[in-house]
Write a structure and sequence with these properties.
heterodimer; A: globular; B: mainly beta
């Protein structure tokens, strides 16, 4: 299993540009989520999905869109990038029996995004 | 308003000694607590967890303690090793499976 994969690893955007961060998992997990990590803030939930066709907002959803057309993929779209969206983005997935912790979330390696 | 707080941004400990990381939370509805470890340029990886109905869970060198009345949990690492140098995140799960994370504590293990 590849686990959770994210592309790209690094990206630089100009203010106003749009882009999609890709996330895929091969563990057949129902639950997927996107976080952003900023210094001194920990990880904050942007959007999450409990299954294909179902998405919901997390703590910091503004400026981001998501969709979940398949169990495997959960892309995050930035509609019009702003410098405040400069961050490291992590995708995670979990299932009812994943890991020793029960519903343990598995994280991808992250995408480092800079918006100029 | 942050529901999970790690008030110590950093911790330095000598190799072989105990590392104690602390975490406080405000939401009494959290039902599961987890610790994640993160190395630079990698995603967080699960370390250990504890259910809200327990007060202690051990896994090798790692022990997590939960004090529900104080809304406080701690992670003990004994003995600390150089490979333990990383950022440690405390997380709490609500009943809709969303995780709330603390800001993290950077642990440095000195030789």
């Amino acid at each position: 299993n590849a686990g959770v994969t994210q592309t790209p690893k690094f990206q630089v955007l100009k203010t106003g540009q749009s882009m999609t961060l890709q996330c895929a998992q091969d563990m057949n997990h129902e639950y997927m989520s996107w976080y952003r990590q900023d210094p001194g803030m920990g990880l904050r939930l942007i959007h999450y999905s409990v299954g294909a066709g179902i998405t919901d907002q997390g703590e910091v959803p503004n400026g981001y869109n998501v969709s979940r057309s398949t169990t495997e993929d959960f892309p995050l779209r930035l509609l019009s990038a702003a410098p405040s969206q400069t961050s490291v983005y992590f995708c995670a997935s979990s299932g009812p029996t994943s890991g020793r912790g029960g519903n343990e979330q598995f994280f991808g390696p992250g995408t480092r995004l800079t918006v100029l | 308003d942050q529901q999970v707080k790690q008030n110590s941004p950093s911790l330095s400990v000598q190799e072989g000694r105990i590392s104690i990381l602390n975490c406080d939370y405000t939401n009494s509805m959290f039902d599961y607590f987890l610790w994640y470890k993160k190395y630079p340029a990698e995603g967080p990886t699960f370390l250990i967890s504890i259910s809200s109905i327990k007060d202690k869970n051990e896994d090798g060198r790692f022990t997590v303690f939960l004090n529900k009345s104080a809304k406080h949990l701690s992670l003990h690492i004994v003995p600390s090793q150089p490979g333990d140098s990383a950022v440690y995140f405390c997380a709490a799960r609500s009943n809709d499976y969303k995780l709330s994370f603390g800001a993290g504590t950077t642990v440095t293990v000195r030789a």
